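pinned: reference chain
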Amino acid sequence: MTSNLFKKVFMITLGSVLLSVGSFFFLINNDIAAGGVTGISMVFSSILPIFTTGEWSLILNLLLFVLAFILVGKKFGIRSIYSSGIVSIVIIILEKIYPNGIVLTNDMILNVVMGSVIQAIGMGLVFYYEGSTGGTDILAVILNKYTHIAIGRSLMIIDILVIILAGFQFGIEKALYATFTVIITTQGIDYLIQGLGRKVAMFIISDKIEEIRDTIISDYDRGVTIFNAEGGYSKENKKIIFTILTNRQYIDIRKEIEKIDKKAFMFTHPISEIYGEGFTFEKIEEEV
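pinned: its structure tokens
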């Protein structure tokens, strides 16, 4: 295993453990079902206590992996299984250590804040090092593939449904705390991955501009704009690709560009707000 791969695996593992710890000590033990597979598992373990939250999480993740392999693809399934598997297993271990649960503080605001921050750090590490927490991400990707609803919006819809379900089971107050948790965690992940910006504007200068353009459009379904330019020193004609990406896409696309052209010149800057096709409304389909 190369040092780079070891670092990546280590950081994804660390992020997954932090996600588990934040969820278990501050959210699960206080019935705060803040979306995701963990939130669904909390509801299931309350309604059907034949399995614990961790066990339900493992079962549901395994089912989602099967769907990911069948409906989305092998690569996505493999990337999802490692991190979410660790999350489920660590929660199961903590449940064995604390079979009656453990409450570190009775202050619900403190539980929400600490749980959200630790989860955000964990998920931020996983995403930054090209991992995936799987779970409802898989449902969002499937929903996007077959309904063309944006992934971000799909995740929001799924989390809202989980919180509503949790509200019936644990009460409206806990559902409101869960909503607060989702908001803090989402904002925290964005901050960790790409500063305060929610999107990334990326500029690429390369001699293999056509191949890079095709990769961004075909593999990541993002639009591009190409500018004609002239090198200030060489006075040679150049082309510059401009594109706007989500935080998760930026990490993957950067790696793909490095594979295509190691000499490619890239620079980015964060964008706090963006309006337009592909982001704030769906892509306009051309009439046949």
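why pinned: DSSP finds ten helices and four strands in the chain. The first strand starts at residue 199 and ends at 205.
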